[in-house]
Specification:
Elements: H1 2-7, E1 11-13, E2 21-27, H2 33-44, E3 49-54, H3 63-68, E4 71-74, H4 82-92, E5 96-100, H5 115-123, E6 127-133, E7 138-145, H6 151-162
Helix pairs in contact: 4-5
Keywords: Acyltransferase, Transferase
InterPro entries: Plipid/glycerol_acylTrfase
Protein name: Lysophospholipid acyltransferase family protein
Length: about 180
């Protein structure tokens, strides 16, 4: 996989921390190609990730594929306390790497969704920063934090890490804020 990425001019950097459970955030998320690149990153680092995806992705004809690569369907149109459900699943597993795109969509929004943060805090797991940066054609794993519960302070660290990362469609990057915490 690394050879294929190199062929297209991409480099893969970083190292996955040695933790049994974590939330991996992938940003910026500005294009459908992000999923393909993140999937390639997954194979480069031999990660066994689970991720949440819009339930409509899991219908035929490709639903089997999205499940095969770790997808967990989520119905986003109703309030179903996804955070609580995911925290419960994390606590029941010996090992889990949950990959989430905090932007939640490929279109520009005024803030990131905060579910990734609340999942990590309630499950007591670190948040690992994974990314793509088209300005340097880099896919990677960067820093990680153990969230403190002080969302503003932790978001400052996250914002500092991602501030120079550029997505495939940089004009669609959402502000690295969380709802109500500006």
């Amino acid at each position: 996989m690394r050879a294929l990425l190199r062929l297209f001019g991409w480099k893969v950097v970083g190292k996955l921390p040695k933790v049994d459970k974590c939330v991996l955030i992938f940003a910026p998320h500005t294009s459908n190609w992000d999923f393909v690149l993140m999937l390639m990153t997954r194979f480069c680092f031999k990660m066994d990730v689970a991720y949440l995806g819009k339930h409509t992705l899991f219908k035929p004809p490709l639903g089997w594929f999205f499940r095969w690569v770790g997808g967990i369907p989520v119905e986003r149109s109703t309030k179903s306390n996804v955070v609580k459900q995911v925290v419960s699943q994390i606590s029941e597993r010996d090992k889990v790497q949950l990959a989430l795109a905090p932007e939640g969509t490929r279109s520009k929004k005024p803030y990131w969704k905060s579910g990734f943060y609340h999942i990590a805090v309630q499950a007591g797991v670190p948040i690992v920063f994974t990314y793509l940066d088209t300005s340097t054609k880099t896919l990677g794993i960067g820093d990680f934090i153990q969230p403190t519960g002080d969302i503003q302070s932790d978001m400052d660290k996250i914002r500092d890490f991602y501030k120079d990362k550029s997505g495939i469609r940089p004009e669609l990057a959402s502000d690295i804020e969380v709802e109500g915490k500006r």
